[in-house]
Amino acid sequence: MIFVVYIILFFLTMIFSNVISRLFPRLPLPLIQLMFGVFFGYFSSQDKLSLNSEIFIALLIAPLLFREGEESDIVSILKHWKAVIFLAFVLVFLTVLSVGFSAYFLRLSIPLAACFAIGAALGPTDLVSMNSLSKSFAFPKWVANLLKGEGLFNDASGIISFQLAISALTYKSFSASDAGMKILVSSIGGILVGGALGWLNRVLIKIFEELEVLDVTGYLLAEILSPFLAFFVAERFEVSGIIAAVTAGIFQAARFKKITLMDAQVDSVTQTVWQALMFVMNALVFTFFGIELERAFLPMYKRDILENLSLVGIILLLTVVLFLTRFLVISGYYRLVSWRRKKKYKRYFKNNLLLTFSGVKGTVSIATILLTPEQLVNSSTFFPYRSMMLLIVAGVTLCTFLIGLIVLPILGEKKEVQKNHLNEIRILEEVMNRLESEAKELRNRLGIDVTIENYRRRVQELMIDLQTDSMKQELYNLRLLILKVEMDGLENAYRKKNISDYAYKYYSMYIRRSEQQVSHHFVSSVHFLWLLTRRTFLSMLHFVDWFLAFRKHYHKRRGLTQEERNSLRKLYKQNTRRILAHLENLKDAHDSELLNYLKADRIRESEMLQDHSFIERLMISSNTDHVEEMMRGYYLERKIISEYRDKGRLTNQEMLEFQRNVNLLESYSLKEDDYNSPVEWLKLFRRPKT
Description:
Layout: H1 2-23, H2 29-43, H3 53-71, H4 74-79, H5 81-105, H6 112-122, H7 127-133, E1 137-138, H8 141-171, H9 176-211, H10 216-236, H11 241-253, H12 261-297, H13 305-341, H14 346-357, H15 363-369, H16 386-411, E2 413-414, H17 422-439, H18 446-466, H19 469-495, H20 501-515, H21 526-553, H22 562-585, H23 592-611, H24 614-619, H25 627-646, H26 652-669, H27 678-686
Antiparallel strand pairs: 1-2
Helix pairs in contact: 1-2, 1-12, 2-12, 3-10, 3-11, 3-12, 3-15, 5-6, 5-8, 5-13, 6-8, 6-15, 6-16, 8-9, 8-11, 9-10, 9-11, 10-11, 10-12, 12-16, 13-14, 13-16, 14-16, 15-16, 17-18, 17-25, 18-25, 19-20, 19-21, 19-22, 20-21, 20-22, 22-23, 25-26
């Protein structure tokens, strides 16, 4: 049962960490998840929630690197293959030596082989951590390709180096030639196993396609199985499982694109599923990172303060050695490159710094050091250096992560989010105009109104997104004012018995819909929280009255009477006048264009009330009955997009992006789940009793 509880807690961690990251975008998501992990580690016992390194690498790191390999720009990586090999293998080994000797000379009272094991665990750059940190800034493309190539392969060199160091520590023997040969064989073997399984997977899928026995689900399951199969088969043959998983991912990506319905469905589904899986696995990685950090630092509470200060100093010094080694080695490589190309080294200096501070460590380093045996071979004696090794690796890993978090956004280029929605707004407005022209010839124009309302809301979202943060905040405050006026008018009418319990319930639904326009900013306003709490409390208070009225009149009628409909219409008009009056009084305190926009929006909704009942107007943006009219809108949107492209008003990239949006909306609109719509529920209460 405790296992199920932890699974639920982990999923709650993912949800809340994502929510916190969106509410506070300056806080990196990995850091939030790491803090949750520290929290879990503090409140959970050692035997109930611990990290099994081998399972962790197999079930989390291998599929993450498989997907990175599948999405990699292989051509660009191959262009820089010499630099990739240098970073993934040579740099790791030099890091092992420099960190190992530094740790040994700092007199940690542990053998040299154990110090080399620390260096091996800290050698590889953690691609998962790097990708998570780089979401807020951009690298030059070739630097990003180098880092991705390094991250795909250096885990294997780090783990192999670690195993050799532990072997030297336990068996008291070490051979440089044997070590080099083992690394070479393990790497080539991993490539061969991953390539063979990738090829076999492709052959089997081709056979299944010819036999017409493979569907989207089967294809997806085969792809998800690939990294695990590659890893375990490679480990069974005692070669690198990590390199096998990466190679399998590269083989999965290196295929010809077939334009078939099956391939289109597979691509759509796999993208969505992998996106969800990547988020979950990344969240687990950083949560376990936090758990192991908390446990690694737990022994420090029991140590003398001077010992702790000395240990912190050693961790900081090793962090400096780690980055300094990386800087000097990469600098030496690019000095050689600049000499061969007869160019100045200054040209590469900034990229050298980027590559240096991109060498952040992550959970892979901790998972690697946890592979240290707890007991000596053929002995019941505990391994005496394990806790110290784990503490140092955890400390240096945390330091590199925090330094990367601070320094990389300064060195990297800030990602500019292009918010030029003007072309899209013009297209959507032209669609609405053409729909309005077609609606004039129709007697029942409800379906067209539903379609136009959906397009109008899309335009509003784009227009708001174009505004500055201060303008958005001002709009948000004005909408809060409108909500307050609306709620006060409703409560006043209910107290005076101008509307029934039924009518109150329906108007409350309209207010809830209005709240959705500002609820995503709720953290920045205590006022909104107060309004939301107040409205919820009053709704619960009146629920008993509504339920009793519903029970009393259930057998007499299903829905609102004409008198109740008229009272709702009258109340809405009264509230509209109050809102317009309040906005008019604020013309000297707020932006006039913003006030005019809100006035026009309210007047438009009031005019719509003249053509439809309050209930139809309330549900108009949620109505899914009018698929034919929605398809007409999407047809017009595609047509206008093509017209804009032919006139040179859109780039190819803009056209493709707009068309993808139309495809998504059209696919969603065609889903046959209208029976779940609240509109369909209301129809049950409107049918006459038989």
